[in-house]
User: Which sequence fits this backbone?
């Protein structure tokens, strides 16, 4: 929970420019993960039957890697549009958490700033800039840090998508590039599986995803996602109750 | 139709990012919702990972032992846990798959 605003740390008057470039610099290592992901999405978009423009503009309109992959895969499978939209929305609800966590540092800004920074609030930009907000001394231009991390991420995502669309057709199937998608997600999920509740969420989601394959309209995906969330939430709750009574 | 769904989902996604930055909403989300949303990445991504590894793209059946993707994914999981780097994880997994497909 953000507490830095109440902390007695001295204000540090970094210029807007140095905050911005600090955000860019700190975001840089994450680009090595984001760029291949964007490239894979660009390739997959075309393979799924989206047009180049649909693929490229989806990276600006949705601007969320996992949800774009799901959109393309479900669309290619002929899933009804409302279920495609619903699945994408469920996946992206997690941003409410980032928004809530970072709000204390951005609420005082003018509306146009909050709209811009809200749009740029991705997993990767949040992860980098929340560190600066929570751990570095507050400054009057600190929001430029998120602008820097967010804009670098946005730019890399757009360019890697465009690159994927351009080279996609030339990559042979034998390279199994689509396998990079589960690999990307393994890189995200494996290190964050820490508690029993996390493991319950993963095991439930994985099991439903397999058993639910016969469901119509690829409903296995959204069923597995919701089942996993419920399982994690329940185990978490039971653990807390056990902890409270013992 | 695809544009309509894309833009509607895009607006929803923007709303999830902006909602707590808007001045209209002064309360934090209830704790049960915060707990539940915390499991979204694990649940969604695992639901994508597992079929992508276990289901044979050729005939849509579950493949276990005769499945190079399963072993490549296991090596990638180890790489992810040890290095915590996305680029290394993808590299290990893809190269392992190439080697196993060639060998099996």
Assistant:
């Amino acid at each position: 929970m953000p507490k830095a605003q109440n902390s007695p740390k001295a204000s540090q008057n970094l210029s807007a420019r140095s905050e911005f470039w600090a955000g860019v610099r700190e975001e840089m290592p994450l680009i090595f993960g984001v760029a291949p992901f964007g490239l894979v999405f660009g390739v997959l978009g075309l393979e799924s039957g989206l047009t180049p423009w649909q693929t490229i503009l989806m990276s600006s309109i949705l601007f969320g890697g996992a949800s774009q992959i799901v959109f393309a895969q479900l669309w290619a499978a002929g899933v009804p549009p409302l279920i495609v939209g619903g699945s994408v929305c469920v996946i992206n609800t997690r941003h409410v958490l980032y928004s809530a966590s970072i709000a204390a540092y951005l609420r005082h800004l003018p509306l146009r700033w909050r709209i811009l920074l809200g749009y740029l609030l991705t997993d990767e930009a949040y992860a980098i800039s929340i560190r600066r907000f929570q751990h570095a001394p507050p400054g009057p231009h600190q929001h430029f840090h998120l602008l820097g991390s967010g804009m670098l991420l946005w730019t890399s995502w757009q360019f890697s998508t465009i690159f994927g669309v351009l080279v996609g057709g030339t990559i042979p199937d034998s390279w199994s590039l689509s396998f990079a998608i589960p690999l990307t997600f393994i890189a995200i999920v494996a290190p964050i599986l820490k508690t029993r509740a996390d493991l319950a969420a993963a095991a439930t989601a994985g099991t439903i995803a397999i058993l639910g394959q016969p469901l119509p309209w690829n409903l296995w995906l959204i069923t597995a996602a919701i089942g996993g969330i419920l399982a994690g939430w329940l185990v978490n709750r039971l653990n807390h109750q056990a902890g409270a009574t013992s | 139709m695809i544009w309509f769904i894309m833009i509607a989902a895009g607006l929803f996604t923007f709303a999830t990012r902006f909602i707590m930055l808007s001045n209209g909403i002064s309360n934090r989300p209830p704790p049960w919702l915060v707990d539940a949303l915390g499991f979204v990445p694990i649940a969604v991504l695992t639901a994508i990972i597992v079929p992508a590894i276990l289901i044979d793209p050729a005939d849509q059946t579950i493949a276990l032992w005769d499945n190079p993707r399963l072993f490549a994914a296991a090596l990638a999981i180890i790489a992810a846990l040890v290095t915590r780097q996305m680029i290394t994880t993808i590299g290990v997994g893809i190269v392992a798959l190439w080697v196993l497909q060639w060998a099996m």
